[in-house]
Structure formats: C-alpha cells, structure tokens
Amino acid sequence: MLPLWNRQQLAFVPFAGTNDMSRSHFETQDSIEAGLSGTGDERHDAASLRGSGFLNRLAQAMGGRAAPVAFTDGLPMVLSGSQDVPNVSLKGTGRTPFDARQTRVLAQMYHGTRFESLIDEGFELRQTVAEQAQALQARTAMAGGGDTMPRACRTCRRPTAAR
User: Fold this and answer.
1) Residue 157: what pLDDT?
2) pTM greater than 0.85 (yes/no)
3) Rounded to an integer, what distance in angstroms lies between the CA atom of residue 123 and that of residue 115?
4) 78 & 127 share domain
5) How far is residue 28's CA from residue 161's CA, in Å, rounded to a whole number?
6) Are 43 and 71 contained in the same domain?
7) Residue 21 — very low, low, confident or very high, per pLDDT cuts 50/70/90?
8) How far is 4 from 59, CA to CA, in rounded Å?
C-alpha cells in the first residue's frame, strides 16, 4: 500500500461509517456494498442498484484500468454488476484444486490478458493456503484436536471459524 500512499492514490478516512439505524445487519451490509448511505430515499433506491456493487461500478468507471478479482465461494454483492469479475473459490483449501497440467492449461488461457498476473497470484495463493491448511490439520491431528477448517455460518452469508 505504501507505493499507492506515496503517489497520493490512497487515503485513510478515520471514523467513517453509516448513520443507518435500521438495526439490520443484512440491510446495512447491502447498502454499504451498493455504495449507499442507508438512509431515507437512498434505502429505497437500493432496489434499483440490486446486483450492482460499488466496486463493480468503480471498475467500470475506470475504463479497464482496474482488474478486480474475488476469492470467495460466490461473487460478493460489492463486485456484482455488468463488469465481468473473475471469482476463484478458496473453499476446500485443504487440497490443491488443480493438478500441474490443469494449472498450466488455465494459466495459458489467461496468458497475455490483463488477468494473467491475477490468475498467477491466485494459483500461488491457493497453493500456499493449501499447504498451510494441510500443515495445520496435521498439527491438530497430532495434538488430538478437532477440526479447525472454516465452515459457513448457517444464519448469515459470511464465513466463520469452526467452534
């Protein structure tokens, strides 16, 4: 982030938030991801922005200078919209999802595109996470502990640690 800061392309905004008083975690989260303050008429306008996250609209406005990518099981609302955003799931990170041949084929598909470096980073990240997850499972098994892999919360859309 330091290079962005030095080029004055990054700023920190302390005490930023929303004055949403709905007490609904889900409505507030949807308003934030849509880029709305969550009050009054804007909340009503959220329906017109359903499926249009503010980061997707930002990527569109940047005219190809941004190459967003999501590393989730499902594309988050904040990246949803008419701009295509690749989505790489990290689910099941205890194993490598692609063998060496599959990784080469997929990397070749994106070779020379603006997504090439992101795909390469994604494969590296996936491999690192898989190795660390396997090591953690081995240590936990040797210590006689339970499952430490993340699981999906049944009552919300966000992942949570296993208990």
Assistant:
1) 41
2) no
3) 12
4) no
5) 23
6) yes
7) confident
8) 17
Based on the fold, state whether residues 30 and 60 are members of the same structural domain: yes
Which domain does 105 fall in, by range? Answer: 92-144
Rounded distance between C-alpha atoms, residue 100 and residue 18, angstroms: 46
pLDDT in tens, 29-70: 877 788 876 555 555 555 566 678 889 999 999 988 888 888
Q: Give the Cα separation of 149 and 138 in Å (integer).
A: 12
Closest alpha carbon to 46 in 57, 58, 35: 35
- The number of beta carbons lying within 10 Å of the beta carbon of residue 141 is 11
- Outline where 18-76 has alpha helix (H): 25-34, 40-45, 54-61
DSSP percent split of the chain into helix, strand, coil, nearest 5 = 45, 5, 50
